[in-house]
Design a protein that fits this description.
Elements (H helix, E strand, L loop, with lengths): L1 E8 L2 H33 L3 E4 L5 E4 L14 H14 L14 H24 L23 E5 L4 E3 L2 E4 L3 E5 L8 E10 L2 E9 L12 E6 L3 E8 L11 E8 L2 H19 L5 H33 L4 E4 L2 H5 L5 H7 L1 H15 L2 E4 L21 H4 L4 E3 L6 E3 H8 L18
Parallel strand pairs: 10-13, 13-14
Antiparallel strand pairs: 1-7, 1-9, 2-3, 4-8, 5-6, 6-7, 8-9, 10-11, 11-12, 15-16
Helix pairs in contact: 1-3, 2-3, 4-5, 5-8
Amino acid sequence: MIAHKIRLDPTDAQARLFDEWAEASRCAWNWALSEWERQHLDRVGGQRFKRVGRTGLVPVGEPWSPDPERPSPSAAGLSRLLTEVRREAPLGTLRWMRPPIPARVYRQPIRDLATAWSAYHRRRALGQRRGGPSNPFGGPVPKRIEAPRSFYLSGQDLEIDGGYVELPFGHRVRLREAPRFRGRVVGSTFSERAGSWSVALTVEFERKRQEPPAGTHAGIRLGASTLATVGARTAAASPDGAGAGRALLAADVPAAYARDLRRLRRLSKDVARKTRGSHNRRKAIQRLRRHHARLADLRRDALHKLTTGIVRLAASVGVEDAADVLGVESISRAVAELGFYEFRRQLEYKAAEAGVEIAVAERLFPAARLCSACGAAHRLPEERWRGVRRWTCVHCGAEHDRDLNAAVNLDPVSFGAGPNGPELPAR
């Protein structure tokens, strides 16, 4: 299965309908969360709790045995309770459950809540980190009205008809592009971002796996000026003295991305100059949201093209730890804006589908400072090293481009390669 996200082109009436369905999904989540907590408190009886964050009940004091007569909360139980509540509710209440709202819109959040609680208890049993400063509890929290809007429909609730998607109650919404994957639609998630609606279709189909060339290998060097440099180690140093490697691919930062970053500063200042609570400030915030969405689309598009090209290029690749690059104060902002963790995430799942092996260098591995020809370390103070783009090895005389030399040293063939390549521990 694969998810395919497509931009929608709804009419104003259809956009208002999507807002109603997204609000119904949010209300269903909050109702299910409060009911789940109530049933849990009834079951544990005299167990005392303390509240952490906006929501989150952490047991304190002596543990209390749960009441065996009261079942633990579950998605199936809440779904049955929701049906009873809907049947017995007075007219005019629970409007988020009234037609024309598909039942899947307010029943899927209950399943999602059960999944979230299971993940929380699993993390707690393993002793993993629970949550951040905004949610120290780490479990499910209520969704505010300002939260991103979305709702879910199953594959049975919709039908793809060329450039349109057929929704329940006869609604026909135009797609900006036809789906690229042909198969059975399992589910769909409709989401809004910066005033635009999109649908993520989960499609089930047989995918032909494209095997990379056998025996090929490459190393990947990420940077702020050049997004990625892909290089491979050769058997020996090149005759022109340029090191023991060759460049396979070089991807620059998109020019539109750098230009739009400058416009982002102007739009941010424009918001700061508007009076709080005014209509002009609201319009300026909407312009800033749309620009942030455009930057995210440009970044995501560049990373998808880059990672797809890499997994088709080599059967094994070596990468550096993105935390090393983020630790450099002078370029940490540029690195964070380019999305190195997103690059790593895309590379890992695409490599798993294509059968490509990934080796990650250990933290603080000096890939750029090691000569790819002789393995000697190039030692300079940190403040002087940051501006060096090309350097010459004082031991063998090989001239190196900094990014290409680092990519060659990150090549998996360099693992344990002896004097012509430093050992690169895989993690």
